[in-house]
Amino acid sequence: MAKRRKAALTLLGRSEAKLPASPAEARLETFPNPARRNYRIHFETDDFTSLCPVTGQADFARIDIDYIPDRLCVESAIAVAEAYQAYALSFDYGQRHQIEIEAACRVANSLGAKEHRVAKIDMRIFGGSALTDDLDVPKKRSETEIARGIPITYVPARNTIFLSYALALAEAIESTDIFIGANAIDYSGYPDCRPEFIKAFETLANLGTKAGVEGARFHIHAPLIRFSKSEIIGKAIELNVDLSLTHSCYDPSPEGLACGECDSCLLRLKGFREAGIKDPIRYAKE
């Protein structure tokens, strides 16, 4: 969840830019950027309170980005960089890799989150996943195997449950912006990490809440959803994120070291390798 801070209006670094009076909408079709990609941005003019994600200049309050060039930390850093005040929410859901909660606390502190709450929900009562049940975590799978089908590390309806909790918190603190680090590139095929899922949940959020039916508009931001792992790492470096604070492994050692063999570790290591950067965390087998 994030609340927007006030900032002076500058449209893409051009202080002379003029927009229609609120309430109104304007559309910028494309513009050049350092990553040599075109971005399509829709923005509203009600409350100019955030930063352009490409130029870093203060411009408008809310953006819908159709395409922009581990996940909690970078997604949170993007929210902070866009001048949002972050209210971090993590989940203790009975996962075997509970060390990720400690990592989430470190990340939230390092990025200056206004609050960090940990919701306790026991998804072990359902099981059905290697992360919450007595099932082996797949190891040493090839990229082809990882990309094929939905693995046993999928936790039934996890992101639906997580986003429902986040929506409840957002409504309670009168925020309309929810950031999630879902990624649909270089991933394990989880159905609740796809853009169509995020879009559908945003529709649900606006239909199923008091704030939504009274005129507020919730926005589910998934700024990393079309990034490759190497692009996520590149964005983290750009935002000065301390990646040594992060954790990705599904099956860490009792000492908290990453196994280096589960799908999550292999995808993380692939991203660092392609980015040409050494992974700063420790692995059990080095």
Can you tell me about this structure?
- The chain is an alpha/beta fold and about 290 residues long.
- It has 2 domains: about 1-65, no CATH class; about 70-275, HUPs (Rossmann fold), CATH 3.40.50.620.
- Helix content is about 30%, strand content about 10%.
- It is built from 8 helices and 8 strands; from the N terminus they run ββββαβαβααβααβαα.
- A 3-stranded mixed β-sheet has the order 1-5-6.
- β5 (about 85-90), α2 and β6 (about 115-120) form a beta-alpha-beta unit.
- α7 (about 230-240) packs across α8.
- It is globular.
What's the layout of helices and strands?
Layout: E1 2-4, E2 25-28, E3 41-44, E4 63-65, H1 72-81, E5 84-92, H2 99-110, E6 115-120, H3 143-147, H4 158-172, E7 177-179, H5 195-207, H6 210-213, E8 219-221, H7 229-238, H8 263-275
Parallel strand pairs: 5-6, 7-8
Antiparallel strand pairs: 1-5, 2-3, 3-4
Helix pairs in contact: 7-8
